[in-house]
Amino acid sequence: MVRSMTGFGRGVTTTTNFQLTIELRSVNHRFLEVHSRFPKDWMEAEMLAKKTISRALSRGKVDVSIHFKELTQSVPTIEVNMDLVQAYEKARQQVAKIAPLPTQWDMAELHALDHVFIQQQEEVALTQVNEAVLTALQEALANLLTMRQAEGELLANVLMEQKQQLQQQIALIEQQSDLAVSKYRERLQERLSMLSSDDYVDERAVVEVAIFADRVDISEELDRLHSHIHQFETTLQSTEAIGRKLDFIMQEMHREINTIGSKNQSTVVSVAVVQAKTILEKMREQVQNVE
């Protein structure tokens, strides 16, 4: 099963106090790389999220964003730092000995004093946060995987079409390679017959044709190409992450085509080799998107 590395997924969970939304965006990457933007107090939840993602995905750069929305506005608790108020009062009395001051405080004065009033907001329990993160993350991952799988099916179809085009060029190369030796023999015999007797022509031609046939023989390269194509087809049916393996197969195919091109003695084969390289390059670009 082919799965793309490109996708998007969103998950939402709602509690009595807040609504949590997690969004996952993934793009191509050689390895799995997870970037997250969690509140600084949610370190444990962030670690749980990264572990969950690493169990579900093998490759890709994944961006995790989180949106937190409070549903209930709790009334804050206000505490008064009485020790600090008393310290301010002593200082005020000392100042009042040399400067006229009102005998009573007003609220404006008290509010102006630093750290006298301490406002405490009720915090969301971390266990509740962890549970909400995992719930929303599971939904986001499911949506992300669905999209990556759908993209992967399209990639598989494109790769199979390109594979068939490649096989057509290989078939043409095979056909021409069988004719190359016989054509060379005919040309060689014609040239030699103009220079010497028939016995010498036959003996010399046999030697030269044998040397030529060995030099341009591409049977091993073609056998390996057919083997790589079979591995390619088998790998596409695998349920595991196959992107790296497919990329390696593409490299091996390209190496065999290059070798065939270096041994080639035919204009028709030269064109087929160029076409095969072009198709392989397109296939490799598609493979870069596979997980």
UniProtKB/TrEMBL annotation:
Keywords: Coiled coil, Endonuclease, Hydrolase, Nuclease. The keyword Nuclease applies. Pfam families: YicC-like_C, YicC-like_N. Residues 173-291 form the Endoribonuclease YicC-like C-terminal domain. InterPro entries: YicC-like_C, YicC-like_N, YicC/YloC-like. It comes from the Bacteria. Residues 156-183 form a coiled coil. Its cofactor is a divalent metal cation. Residues 2-156 form the Endoribonuclease YicC-like N-terminal domain. The keyword 4Fe-4S does not apply. GO terms for molecular function: hydrolase activity; RNA endonuclease activity. Belongs to the YicC/YloC family. This is YicC family protein. It comes from Lysinibacillus alkalisoli.
